[in-house]
Amino acid sequence: MPNLLPRSQPAVCATSAAHKSRLALAVSLLMAGAAQAQTLGVSTQGNTGGLSIPSADVLETGSAALSYGNYREPKLRPGQREANYSLGFGLAPNIELFGRFAEYTVPTPTRIVNGVRDLSVNVKLQLPQLWQGQPKVAVGLNDIAG
User: Fold this and answer.
1) Cα(91)–Cα(89) distance, integer angstroms
2) Where are the strands (E) in the chain, listed by range?
3) pTM here?
4) How far apart are CA 96 and CA 122, in angstroms?
5) pLDDT per residue as tens digits for the range 89-117
6) Residues 6+ apart with CB under 8 A from 44
7) Strands 81-92 and 64-69, sheet pairing
8) Shortest CA distance to 142 belongs to which of 125, 120, 126?
9) Is pLDDT at 37 greater than 50 in this prediction?
10) Is the separation of the CB atoms in 84 and 58 below 8 Å?
């Protein structure tokens, strides 16, 4: 018996290439605005910056920052539980002070063994900007006590 049902046609997408381009442009413009609206972060080293890289930014006078993370120093062996606690203050214009406590424990089947502990103090001074458009520059000391 012959098949009398019509053959299905491939689905045609109603969205045109021009529409996709406009949509991609709109999303890109929205993301560009969001990317510029970044706030100061706290690095794993206990100062303002990125993951493990300090920046030339400092906390504003009178402000504070608190952070917790599980970043592991590369020179320490894997298999440990890591805990990093940081507390920082903007002491004066262009000066920040951070304290950091790092604690590493080694879990075993029966108990948790204390590993390396580190207490450090970090200070950073942002140099004055002498002309408009000058990049920010800062100098600091990391792990003063520890």
Assistant:
1) 6
2) 64-69, 81-92, 95-107, 112-126, 138-141
3) 0.64
4) 8
5) 999 999 999 998 888 887 777 776 777 78
6) 51, 52, 69, 71, 84
7) antiparallel
8) 120
9) no
10) no
| Tokens coding 56 | 């030339």
Yes or no: say if 48 and 58 are a contact pair by the CB < 8 Å rule. yes
- Identify whether the C-beta of residue 90 lies closer than 8 Å to the C-beta of residue 58: yes
**What one-letter code names the amino acid at 89?**
F
Structure tokens at 111: 């108990």
Reading the block at residue 134, the tokens are: 């000058």
Residues 6+ away with beta carbon under 8 Å from 119: 99, 100, 101, 102, 145, 146
How many Cβ atoms are within 10 Å of 49's Cβ, its own excluded? 19
The owner of tokens 């303002």 is 48
